[in-house]
Every structure is written in structure tokens, then in C-alpha cells.
Amino acid sequence: MGSNLSAMVVTHLVLELRFQGKKLRGFTCKLTRSAHSLLLENSWSIMKQVLLPYLVFGLGMMAAGMVMDEVQDSNQWFILYNKFHNPQK
Q1: Where are the transmembrane segments (predicted)?
Q2: What is the biggest distance separating any 2 CA atoms in the chain, rounded to whole angstroms?
Q3: Is pLDDT at 8 greater than 70 in this prediction?
Q4: pTM tops 0.85, yes or no
Q5: Measured in Å, how far apart are the chain's first and last C-alpha atoms?
Q6: Is the pLDDT of residue 51 over 70?
Q7: CB of 11 closer than 8 Å to CB of 19
Q8: Distance CA 54, CA 76 (A)
Q9: Hey, how many other C-beta atoms are within 10 angstroms of the C-beta on 67?
Q10: The pairing of beta strand 10-20 with beta strand 23-34
Q11: What pLDDT, on the 0 to 100 scale, is given for residue 32?
């Protein structure tokens, strides 16, 4: 009894369309196939894909911290806490 080991082949297709106005004037097609189930990427390519989400996440966390810094000492937290934890019947 033999084992069936099938190799995964990854195909990466890059298609570039060139328009002039609304008319297609040309295209470029680049096909990359890898039999090792992964496409090699350099560090610059990975950085371009990851940098923007991390920057947006960091700015969002910074903005949330600034808002919480302004709000934490306000009287509104005390009012909301008392409203939900000590309901008046």
C-alpha cells in the first residue's frame, strides 16, 4: 500500500490593464508558479503590506488613549456607575 503524497502548486497571477479613457489599450500578464506551496517574498514586499494596518491600529489606540485620558476624571462616569449599580426603585 503506497501513500499518495500530492504536491501543492501555488500560482500567482499579476494582471496589469492599461486604459486610455474607457478603452483598453494593452495589458501585461505575469504568471509565477511555485511547487513548494509558498511564494517567496522579500522583506520590502511584506513591509509594504503590513505597515499601513499597523500604523492605523497604532493611531487608533493613541486616539482612544487620549479620549480616555480626558474622560476618566469627568463626573459622567460616576453618574453612569450609580445609575446602573444603585438603581432607585
Answers
A1: 50-68
A2: 77
A3: no
A4: no
A5: 77
A6: yes
A7: no
A8: 32
A9: 10
A10: antiparallel
A11: 82
pLDDT at 5 over 60: no
Distance CA 32, CA 4 (A): 26
Residue 26 falls in which region: left (phi positive, over 0), alpha (psi -120 to 50) or beta: left
SS3 86: coil
41 against 87, higher pLDDT: 41
Task: Give the DSSP H/E element, type plus range, for residue 45.
Answer: helix 43-71
Residues 6+ apart with CB under 8 A from 13: 29, 30, 31, 32
Q: Are 16 and 27 in contact (CB under 8 A)?
A: yes
**What gap in Å lies between CA 33 and CA 5, rounded to an integer?**
19
CB 11 within 8 A of CB 32: yes
Nearest to 36 by CA among 11, 59, 56, 55: 11
Task: Tell me the residue type at 19.
Answer: F
Q: What is the pLDDT of residue 17?
A: 94
